[in-house]
Write a structure and sequence with these properties.
By secondary structure, this protein is an alpha+beta fold. The chain has a single domain, classed as Roll (Nuclear Transport Factor 2, Chain: A), CATH 3.10.450.50. The chain has a four-stranded antiparallel sheet with strand order 1-2-3-4, with helices on one face. The longest helix is centred in the first third of the chain and has 22 residues.
């Protein structure tokens, strides 16, 4: 009888742990932004420009495409300071350092950019991108 009770409790405990693990972290505006930033820059890194473009505001997309072409192929990136404008947290400025190179010279150049992201419903969209000012905190 004790073995059955132990087995039932062990099964219930394992099921509870599995349910907790599957629940993950709660989605907040900040975690949503961070997930979008990582996904967007990973798309750039792996040259998946079509997927990256879906996270860019339509009016800014042509300019973004030109700026991205100037950077070249992204070999690495580092997210720096994130400044969410509160309330309500629908606007954020992000500093990102991108290492990129262009063929044929293959010289790696580092670009420090200031990106502006705006929340549109449930999605974050890149709306501006420009070189960051020198000595800007965040990187």
């Amino acid at each position: 009888m004790n073995r059955r009770r132990f087995a039932r409790h062990a099964f219930a405990l394992a099921l509870s742990a599995l349910a907790t693990a599957c629940a993950g972290r709660p989605e907040t505006r900040a975690t949503g932004l961070l997930d979008t930033l990582r996904r967007h820059h990973e798309h750039l890194r792996w040259e998946n420009y079509g997927a990256a473009a879906t996270q860019v505001d339509a009016p800014f997309r042509a300019e973004w495409s030109q700026l991205t072409a100037q950077i070249g192929r992204v070999s690495d990136y580092e997210l720096g300071g994130i400044d969410m404008k509160d309330p309500p947290g629908d606007d954020a400025q992000v500093i990102v350092k991108i290492a990129g190179f262009r063929v044929p010279d293959m010289t790696v150049r580092t670009h420090v950019l200031r990106e502006r992201w705006r929340r549109d419903g449930d999605h974050w969209r890149l709306s501006e991108m420009a070189p960051a000012q020198p000595n800007l905190p965040g990187l």
